[in-house]
Known about the structure:
Pfam families: Glycos_transf_N (PF04413). This protein has 432 residues and is an alpha/beta fold. It folds into 2 domains: 5-218, Rossmann fold (3-Layer(aba) Sandwich); 224-391, Glycogen Phosphorylase B (Rossmann fold). 46% of the residues lie in helices and 15% in strands. The strands form 2 sheets. A 7-stranded parallel β-sheet has the order 3-2-1-4-5-6-7, sandwiched between helices. Helix 5 (93-101) links the parallel strand 2 (85-90) and strand 3 (107-111). Helix 6 crosses helix 7 (141-149) and helix 17 packs across helix 18 (393-424). The radius of gyration is 23 Å and the shape is elongated. The relative contact order is 0.11.
Amino acid sequence: MRAPPLFHLYVAATVLLAPFVAWFEIRKLRRQGLSALRAHEKMGHASQPRIGSGNLIWFHAASVGESLSVLALITRMGEMLPRAHFLITSGTPTSAKLVADRMPPRTVHQFAPLDAGGPLTRFLHHWRPAAAIFVESELWPRMLRMTRARGTMMALVNARLSAKSRAAWARRPGFAAYVLDVFDLILTQNDDMAQAMVDMHAPADRVARGSNLKSMSAPLPQNPALLAQIRTAIKARPIWVAASTHKGEETTVLDAHKTLLQTIPDLLLILVPRHPDRSDEVAKLIAKHDLTYALRSDGALPRDDHAVYLADTLGELGNWYALSDVVFLGGSLLPIGGHNPFEVVQSEAAVLSGPHVTNFAETINKMVETGAAEIVADVEALTFSVGHLLQDGAHKAASLRAARAFVQGKSDELTRIAARLIHILKLEDDNR
């Protein structure tokens, strides 16, 4: 396909702007504590050697959520391709740290090169990927076309574009068709997005509905030593978790907990704000409800007289999920979009969620249909559902069975997606 004039204009702009963008990006990474060696990955200078003699499969994601969403897929593809190695690129130090903490076997992380000729040439020459898999909305024109020009097989997975992005691409149909033509396969999150990609002039015969990879994410990490400490401290107390709560939701959670204490007096709430820097604000709210609490960031453990354990730290959510069969998932009582319910059921817990779950609508709806999740719209519904799960053993057992079945179904679906990518990207030979 011939490059449209707008693509040539974009290339010219990157030539002019690359030195300034490079200075800004490297300076930003250095200020965030990265070494000069790692910061210069933005310029395509690899900080690690190319690994292995087999095929290298490159995954490119933008930020934390997208990076973490593909770790389970990398792991599954690695099981199916034991000689393959993997490279994951992203753009933020936070994503780099979290990926490093959960790195699948035979995988390395690098910061993504700038979308400019020099950085991309160095990057592609060093890593020589056999296949490149881009995640969600990472559509950098030069990166895509230069990767394809090397003969690399390419896919877009978990494809998702906002209405604003779709409208912008729709105004440039020739440019959109030229960029999207690089992909051998485009897997979208749902049918609506599949149609949107076709409307944006993606090749219709290469577009298919996939699934939201965030609903197949790898299990959250746990700290066995910490879990042993907490379990010793709480003994046999009943527990429920309110995770990833946002401003305006903690009041509902604490009102529900206060009511539940009237019938379950030794009940412990583990409250995990989405943003730990809100710790002081949430602590004041707990005190305003006349509830006693311990603070995780102080290193404290919950005592028998503590009604709430305020878990105001990052990266420990897997521990709190492991402690309870009942988890309310925040970001859902208000129009925020919700958070990942699959991480909860992977820990064999029942999910309670508010109604505002646009980010995971398909996942939550299927979980509700199977009994692995319940929707609670207000404090009365939250109080009833938590109490019902804690006090009705048969109801809780049925919810947990549904959760386990949902996890198994997603595991099978992940295998199918991995097998499809391996086939379309012609990676089968690396399994010999």
